[in-house]
Amino acid sequence: MITNHKTGALESFNFDHLYAHIPELKRFELDIEVKSFETPLDSSEIDPSHWHIIAKWIVDAYDAFDGFVVLHGTDTMSYTGSALSFMLQGLRKPVVMTGSQLPIGIIRTDGKENLITAIEMAAAKDANGEAILQEVAVYFEYALFRANRSAKISAHQFEAFASPNYPLLAKAGVQIKWNREHLLRTNNTRLEPKLDLSNQVIIWHLFPGMPIELYCQSLDFDQVKILILKTFGVGNAFSNSDFQDLLKRYVDQGGIILNITQCQSGEVKQGAYQTSTFFEQIGVIGGADLTVEAAITKSMFALANFTKDQIPKFLESNVVGELSSPNNKD
Fold this sequence. Notes:
The protein is of the alpha/beta class and 330 residues long. It has helices at residues 18-21, 48-61, 77-87, 111-123, 212-216, 241-252, 277-282, 292-305, 311-316, and strands spanning 2-3, 10-11, 68-71, 95-98, 136-140, 143-146, 151-152, 161-162, 170-172, 176-178, 201-205, 226-231, 256-261, 285-286. α2 crosses α3 (77-87) and α3 packs parallel to α8 (292-305). The radius of gyration is 21 Å and the shape is globular.
């Protein structure tokens, strides 16, 4: 957004005038092309259909550009970034998402620095001429995060994002310091996009005294194929018989349950406590250290691209750096 100085109202930013608002971009020896939604969206309005559009734009322009920057509202940026990381299989070019906490027309805006540095990172090459970044990332307030490890943690601080279970990919100071050992690399030789998603996913945030009878109505296997549980600590839940009976019936019908932790950092370890052994018994999938955003988008991707028998292995595997597998601790 940008402020109309005559009315004081926030209006959609006209990217045709990008250089007028951010003249510093002229100092880059880069060719920048801009593509925008016809009607700009508040990020709260973003849904999988928009992820498909963004991914398709990148796929269609993939051979013509060295890198891509996606400007996006902060509220759902990590959802979009996580979705793109799964949809753009075989990605070997940078896709950097960024935005701002203050509109670009505000004097103290963080938007200009975020955009300038995101473009610089998307254009960065190593000594061999290869892109340094070859994955989907989120850049915000001097820090570059793996998109499917990121989460918005603040609505009022410039440091709006964090990656509690994975190190930064880069830090922007006087120079950009790349943490190369943490950058993702693929064995794929070409981009193999898979753009279909299914939204037959729901998520339950468990809490003490949760009225199980009210939730029974929402767990219809014909409509819900994957249930994500946000559990306590390392994957624990209450031993309520109605709750356990409901989950068992759902699994017996063919439903898939993915267990992630409510904690901001750490991971699920089913069976570590008595209160999670039931999950092991009925085949609940442990989500390790998946973020909420990654768990939801990975589930949507899995339903659209794999058979029911293939989905459990996919969900518990580290596909594009989204989780720490037992044999690949980060």
